[in-house]
Amino acid sequence: MNSFFDLHYAAQILPALLHASLYTILITLVGFAVALVLGLVFAILRRSAVRPVALTVGFVVEFIRSTPLLIQIYVLFYVLPVYGITMSALMAGTVGIALHYACYTSEVYRAGLNGVARGQWEACCALSLSPRRTYLGVILPQAIRPVVPALGNYLVAMFKDTPMLSAITVVELMQQAKNIGSETFRYLEPITLAGLFFLVISVTFAHLVRRLEFSLRLP
């Protein structure tokens, strides 16, 4: 116990940290899946010809992007129950981080949509394609391919932001490391292992995104 880094102690706490890391990955993947879908909806609605809809969605996106994630999850977990909306810590954390990053991914999608040549939109209009066929068949395949790297960056960023959920009692990887350290008053090993987990998983996510980018590139 007096050594600088106790390998035996590190091996003992490794299973608990591994379990917490899987829990953290699950939160990240579920939250990111929601953020991808919701972000796309936001981006499309901001292009709506109905001006009140576009302005309202734009205000919501900018408001959420301009306020800290920590405050948002506090509101979801501690404030909403006062008004009768109660969620578990896990649900509030997942919803909070998904909504927060949906606003960032919506801007990425918007950049992709704006990058599609105007002629493509005009051709869809000339062919009398429905909005659904226009987006699914013509616009989105061209808009999403170039923004995959930016979306991948937000996946890694979301994973690294999961420790904020410990503020509402979600026991993710970092919180588990702190809990283990508080039991023995030895923080070096759990915090170091947690950092290594974050590093390895973040690099893995980045590698998978690069593989996806490579598979989607044009011939």
What does this structure look like?
The chain has 219 residues and is mostly helical. Helix content is 78%, strand content 0%. The chain has helices at residues 7-45, 51-65, 69-79, 89-115, 118-126, 131-144, 148-161, 173-184, 188-216. It holds the Pfam family BPD_transp_1.
CATH level-two architecture: Orthogonal Bundle
Portion in beta strands: under 5%
pLDDT averaged over residues: 90
Secondary structure: number of strands: 0
The CATH topology assignment is: MetI-like fold
Low-confidence stretches: none
Shape estimate = flat
Layout of helices and strands, plus pairs?
Elements: H1 7-45, H2 51-65, H3 69-79, H4 89-115, H5 118-126, H6 131-144, H7 148-161, H8 173-184, H9 188-216
Which properties best describe this structure?
single chain; 219 residues; mainly alpha; MetI-like fold; 0% strand; flat; transmembrane; transmembrane helix; membrane; Ectoine/hydroxyectoine ABC transporter permease subunit EhuD
Give a short overview.
This protein has helices spanning 7-45, 51-65, 69-79, 89-115, 118-126, 131-144, 148-161, 173-184, 188-216.
